[in-house]
User: Fold this.
Amino acid sequence: MAKKTEVLYAPHEQIEEMQLAGIKKTVIDCYEHIDFYKKSFDEAGFDPYSVTSLDDVARIPFVQKQDLRDAYPYGMLAVPLKDVREIHMSSGTTGIATVGAYTEHDLKIWGECFARGVEYAGGDENDVMHVAYGYGLFTGGIGAHYGGVAAGCTTIPMSAGNTERQIRVLREMGSTILCCTPSYAMHIADTALEMGLDPARDFHLRAGIHGAEPFSDNFRRDLERKLNYRVLDVYGLTETMGPGVALECWEQQGLHIAEDHFYPEIINPETGEVLPDGEWGELVLTTLDREASPVVRYRTRDITRIIPGQCPCGRTHRRIDRIHGRTDDMLIIRGVNVFPSQIEDVMKTFPQMSSWYQIEVDTDHRSLDIVTLKAEPNPDVDLDSMAAVERLQRQISAAMKTALSVGVKVKLVEPKTIPRSEGKAKRIVDLRKEK
Ligand code: DLL
Assistant:
């Protein structure tokens, strides 16, 4: 019988009571134990003992990624180091990493949150979970692993890489749930096809719990067709916990936030004003019971919205929409805002196109952004003449114009020339930074 975690069905008023209690405790903990918050609250004139309703949250100052970086390595700990059992770090590609620390309690909650993904997939101890997110400082591998174990699955800690071996193990162990980035799942599927296998038949997958990067609906359908399973999105970030902050259920109508552990808000990224449900903006998260690394109003830079209304699955935890992208990755083409995942979605309406692409951003002589989509057609597509290639390029470009109102140059490239990734795919190549 499928598991039914009670709190996921609790009346929303009850969840709000839990949230208020969690926020009250977290702001006081942060104020009393973390210098950054004491200074930030005092400077903003915010009294952490004054919270009486969820409306008060809008008065609390934000915390940003840079604040966490400035506190590296241990400046944001709310407990003594002796109580910390595990540390993870963000990749820090743009500078100093941010640190996520966990007490024993935090690790337990993490496992329980990710395990909800297994529950949402209708899974249980009869499932074999193949974890091909990277293990290590990245939260993907270990977070999914704790989730698999907490859900009672037979959990296989593959980590990322060595794709042919992944394929052998997927087949031989009869894995039913695959956890990795969506781009790596696509690479696994494509490699299996190249090896002469039919992964839709030769694998035994039922569900994939894929996240850590944006992917479009059309990308998802392609993956589901190739692997003959259902793809569920998982969201998370080092600064608040790792994967499991929000997870999609079988309905595929948005990701349920673990509202008993996180308080979500959507803000206008320019003004900081809180937006009503349904409006797109930047997701801000407050942890409700995190002991080692609590955050209060952390600006994620991820663009989404809270989906109004209740999910047909009957669970009461509110849902965020699939992440469009990060504010830092948003392209502004002649004044129009576009995310790479929207470009991907349009490209993937062309059956001739594979899922491998990169978007190059450069500036022209008038310093206006020019955007080129470099993309691989499917290897079995016969583009025998230059004229055929140019026609397809023009058609894709025209579809971008119609769907997104932006001019995107399209350049088809040879199969396998776009780098494959075992973790997060690099979708944007910013040539402006190299000038
Ligand atoms: O990517 C945690 C994670 C691991 C999530 C495995 C899901 C699965 P970071 O490396 O700190 O942590 O990167 C966090 O990745 O702010 C988003 O911009 C992006 N991201 C995470 N999940 C999704 C998703 C992990 N489902 C950053 N869709 C976040 C779109 C996502 N973007």
About this structure: The longest strand covers residues 353-363. Residues 112 and 150 are 6 Å apart (CA to CA). The longest helix spans residues 12-33.
